[in-house]
Write a structure and sequence with these properties.
Length: 197
């Protein structure tokens, strides 16, 4: 009788130890969240006091399969999602915030914002990212269109298109984030070069 109780205790102890081992061995690494942030200085930019020009950057249009929180790398014809990293927000929001922050940092004398305005802004920028691709071999490409529409109907709109590329490592999620950032920086440079304000 005492042997039966002892055997049951041993069995229970082994079962608990096995469950604990499985739980720790199956535990996934912590999830890292990444942002496409402009520098902190851009967030602190305050335009001059008084009447200033207002530029509203509309939310970027991004293909549906990209507009999520997955950090993706293309291997051949397959898109591979990172198991350890995610964007902190949808790609369309992150890209819009990045472009807005970079443009605002360049022009602290005007208000450049991605927030909807109560009054019509002096300019609206409509941005479409038609493709954004990072391959496992380290080649990143992006194609984008942007339209700058002035409030004054007598002024012409500016419609532009650009193709951008960057190369680098894709060994880590941070490397992939850096390639995306490089593409968006080139896009921002192109928008700034074509801006009428």
């Amino acid at each position: 009788m005492s042997f039966g109780i002892s055997a049951r205790r041993i069995f229970m102890a082994l079962a608990l130890a096995s469950a604990a081992f499985l739980a720790t061995s199956c535990a996934s690494p912590p999830l890292n969240l990444y942002t496409l942030e402009a520098s902190d200085a851009a967030a602190r930019v305050t335009p001059s006091v008084g009447k200033v020009k207002v530029v509203e950057i509309r939310r970027a249009a991004v293909p549906d399969f990209l507009d999520n929180q997955d950090i993706l790398v293309r291997r051949g014809s397959t898109l591979v999602r990172s198991s350890q990293g995610r964007w902190a927000s949808r790609l369309s929001l992150g890209a819009t915030h990045f472009v807005t922050g970079q443009l605002a940092q360049r022009r602290p004398d005007i208000l450049i914002t991605d927030q909807p305005q109560i009054e019509p802004p002096d300019y609206q920028v409509f941005l479409t990212i038609s493709s954004l691709d990072v391959t496992a071999t380290g080649t990143a490409t992006m194609e984008a269109d942007w339209l700058i529409v002035p409030r004054n109907a007598a002024l012409p709109s500016q419609r532009k298109r650009g193709g951008f590329s960057a190369t680098g490592s894709t060994a880590t999620d941070q490397d992939v984030v850096s390639l995306n950032t490089a593409l968006l920086q080139q896009l921002t440079d192109a928008i700034a070069a074509s801006s009428p304000w």
